[in-house]
Amino acid sequence: MEEHKSGKDKPRIIRSDFVTSAYDLDGIPVGCLPEVAFVGRSNVGKSSLLNALCGRKSLAITAKRPGRTQALNFFKVEFACGESRALAHFVDLPGFGYAKVSKSLRNQWSEFLVTYLGKSRQLEIVMILVDARRGPEEEELWIRELCGDKRCLALITKADKLKQAEIGLMANRVREELCLGRESVFSVASLPGKRKGTERVIESIYQRISGREEFPEDELDEDITEEL
Ligand SMILES: Nc1nc2c(ncn2[C@@H]2O[C@H](COP(=O)(O)OP(=O)(O)OP(=O)(O)O)[C@@H](O)[C@H]2O)c(=O)[nH]1
Ligand SMILES: [Mg+2]
């Protein structure tokens, strides 16, 4: 039976702050907060979704031109659910597939991303973003494979561009091709005025991070890059 949650008991994000930009593994912040990474091709809507979830206009910088996000940007996010609280880092990743960056930079980036996605112990959830009008392609399948046993959620972005029936078909395709269960695939629209689907995503993230063993943040001074 589906549990009924009053508005007050639904998880929500009550605070979000920029922490740092990491250009290499040494730049990743020290600590043990669970990380939720936003991964996907350039322009798919990673930064916009992060802003929509946090209820902020321009916490993460968005742009019409692809390739806007050029580092791993860490944001500290506080969730509230009734009297309970949980903290996480949202990590906005540079998009892949952006042709205008030089090949050597692309290689360097993908090496950095591969290491981060494959090895970070703090990484609790990988949010794989898929454009509603494209569906999963080679790159998204590659990312999914790279994540192995890590918890992945697939987010079909720009859902406002499709009809409801088309979104249903796309969700089936994403589930099948990325080998994910029904509860791990969501469709979202992130732009102010058109926002849809964000509450369910917040709920799913919260369920995962609030079930994680808790560490008092100020006791966590070990350098996580040593674990990478
Ligand atoms: N219609 C519509 N447009 C969106 C939505 N989300 C993002 N966009 C637009 O898509 C473009 C790219 O959005 P970003 O959030 O910057 O994309 P990104 O994935 O962070 O891009 P990079 O940082 O370049 O990798 C912007 O013009 C956004 O306004 C959405 O839900 N619906
Ligand atoms: Mg971005």
The parts where pLDDT drops under 50 for at least 5 residues are 215-228
Rg computed from alpha carbons, rounded to a whole number of angstroms: 17 Å
Query: Quick one: how many beta strands?
Result: 7
Q: How far apart, in Å, are the first and last alpha carbons?
A: 41 Å
CATH architecture label: 3-Layer(aba) Sandwich
Topology:
Layout: E1 12-22, E2 35-39, H1 46-54, E3 72-81, E4 84-92, H2 103-119, E5 123-131, H3 138-147, E6 151-157, H4 164-177, E7 185-187, H5 198-210
Parallel strand pairs: 2-4, 2-5, 5-6, 6-7
Antiparallel strand pairs: 1-3, 3-4
The structure holds guanosine-5'-triphosphate and magnesium ion (MG).
Task: Describe, in plain words, how this protein is organized in 3D.
The chain has 228 residues and is α/β, with parallel strands linked by helices. It has one domain (7-216): P-loop containing nucleotide triphosphate hydrolases (Rossmann fold, 3-Layer(aba) Sandwich), CATH 3.40.50.300. It has five helices and seven strands. It has a seven-stranded mixed sheet with strand order 1-3-4-2-5-6-7. The radius of gyration is 17 Å and the shape is globular. The N and C termini lie far apart (41 Å). The model is unreliable at 215-228 (pLDDT under 50). Guanosine-5'-triphosphate binds at residues 40, 42-48, 62-64, 66-69, 94-95, 157-158, 160-161, 189-191.
